[in-house]
Design goal:
two-stranded antiparallel ribbon
Length: about 160
């Protein structure tokens, strides 16, 4: 007998994303600093703020649909059926942790090639493309967007 959990998707998504948006809106002033001088440019908080307010509005709509109009989709979650997806989510969590330790390039190469291997990809050209894309994304963020990604063990080399 498979153990399943019944999830009311509109209700759960409304609650989780509503809480997320409220918490992020409260935390954002401490995390995204305003410039020291007014250059006339929009605040760095404007795009995240708009996105978070949009998430909050959509969450409220989902909650109203679930609680008032009783529009709901019941999803039956079975651990056995979702194991593969949960492992992939776990791999991405490991990627975030390894990025801090090893740096973006080594962590990206290990995790993304590992995910491809796990998914059954065996063509060498795909792996070469993946390795190249990790390096390209790193240098794109460094040199075009001027966003520092962790260099980790490659600090001083690149």
């Amino acid at each position: 007998m498979k153990k399943t959990i019944k999830i009311r998707t509109n209700l759960l998504a409304g609650i989780v994303m509503g809480l997320f948006s409220v918490i992020m809106l409260l935390v954002m002033p401490t995390q995204v600093r305003l410039p020291m001088w007014d250059s006339g440019a929009p605040s760095p908080r404007i795009i995240p703020g708009i996105c978070l307010v949009g998430i909050l509005i959509c969450s409220i709509i989902l909650l109203v649909q679930s609680l008032v109009f009783h529009k709901e989709h019941i999803y039956e979650f079975a651990w056995e059926n979702e194991r593969k997806e949960l492992l992939l989510i776990g791999a991405l969590v490991v990627f975030v942790a390894l990025t801090r330790i090893l740096g973006f390039i080594p962590a990206g190469m290990l995790i993304f090639c590992g995910i491809q291997w796990y998914e059954g990809e065996r063509k060498p050209l795909i792996y070469i493309y993946t390795l190249a894309m990790v390096v390209i994304v790193y240098f794109l963020f460094q040199n075009v967007f001027h966003v520092d990604l962790p260099a980790g063990i490659l600090k001083g080399i690149i």
